Amino acid sequence: MKKLFTSALLALVLSVNVYAQEKTYFDENWEKTTQENMEYYRETTPKGKLTLIKDFYKDGKLQMEGLASDTTPNSEIFDGKVTWYTPEGKVMTITTFSNGKQLGVSQSYDEKGRLTEDVNYKSDGTFDGKAFLYKDVESEYFYNTITTYENSIPAKTIVYDENIKRIRYENYTTKDGGTETKYYDEKGKLIGTAPSGSGETLLVDYYPNPMRVSKIEKYKSDGSVKEGVIYAKNGKLLQEQKNSKKEGYKTTYDESGKKIGHLVYQYDKENDTFKPMDGEDYQFNYDSTQISGIDIYKNGSIIISKSFDEAGKLSSEKILKDDITQEIKYYSPDGKLKSTLTYKDEMPYNGTSYEGLTETQYKEGVVVNTRIYNEEKKLKSEKKLNSKQTAYDAIIYDNKGVTLYTYNQPLNEDEDNYFFTAQIVQYVKGKPTNKSSIKKGILQTGKIKLTTLNGSKELERNGKWVLLKLYGTDGKLIQETKTLADIPEEYSSTENPAMLSEDDLYYFD
């Protein structure tokens, strides 16, 4: 009889628990949905004055659990410890609440289970504690980092490699709200502090993987370099610079330690600067891994200026006399000479220049051909001077090489003619459609449609008016206005949406 009563009581308890538990389904945005469309689901169970919430991923793995006095989705009022989990079942965050507010310890972990945040929330809403970032190729963090917070404000950050007592730098927030940085070398020895408090300052850069000192520069209070050194990744000295009261020098070495350049400075008392006088001035790229340029000085003037590409290959060599460019030689990556551009009266005269993605050909001081390429080295546009030398004929292509526009632009030496003037033909799917004429940036006849940052715009001339239509990225008309074509010159501005510039034709990427 006693056994029967116990079984009946157990069945009653189980029955109460089953009927007390509720289940709600949510989509990927945590909006209520049906079981068929759910990505998450929630089970709630009364626990005294509170309710236990358990959220699950679609596959039944626990996503979150915690007690709450209000279980309204997206407006829960939690009380006590709440834990969130990754889809793999690892703890992601543990936070303590009091009546819906974070109060007490909060800890977060990354996908590898490493602690990323360990803070303590106070009753006023601020927190103390630490945040962690880890050196990880997958997450593209080059260094380990620990940031200490006081009253929710970063008070100290340590950036280090493997051993926090070895190579590192430390940023501090001072009592007056300023900042201070301490730099350390591979052995953990202090290199210096910036600011130093003497009006001079210090800057130290580091290589990643492994962390090594790449550059140390000391600056005077006026911002000029007092002394500096650059190291190669193998630790060898690449460059050293030092300026004294009357003179200075900069010496450059290769990665084996061999001296390859030496530049002498002379103090200019009138301007309180150090002027390069004689020798070779080597410049390095942003991370000091490649030579980016070499300037050769003689008697205080540059006579040769060399530029190198990202691979460290010579790309151009400028020859100067009395600080005036005489010619520029351009080289291909294999070292072969591509072109020699000569100058006359300080202007390009004969030859071809290669600047970035633009190739410009000159003949007796006149631009006869301009080619612009995209990042994939495909021809984006070409503009040629016609045989009569009265106008340029231009063609613009899309990224697939299909013609978008052709235009004829008169050769006008009048410098006051700042705005775009041309006869334009627009193409759609490689076939000519709209024709238009532009004079000083104002549409004179016809119609043209252009791609813009937020969609496209269409301009059409109608009598004394320019009709303007703006379309969104979805192609729908969002604005339609009209503007007088012949507006006063003082109002003629490229800010006028009804005006057209040559660059507008190129905006299609």
Automatic annotation (TrEMBL):
<protein>
    <recommendedName>
        <fullName>Antitoxin component YwqK of the YwqJK toxin-antitoxin module</fullName>
    </recommendedName>
</protein>
<keyword id="KW-0732">Signal</keyword>
<dbReference type="InterPro" id="IPR011652">
    <property type="entry name" value="MORN_2"/>
</dbReference>
<dbReference type="Pfam" id="PF07661">
    <property type="entry name" value="MORN_2"/>
</dbReference>
<feature type="signal peptide">
    <location>
        <begin position="1"/>
        <end position="20"/>
    </location>
</feature>
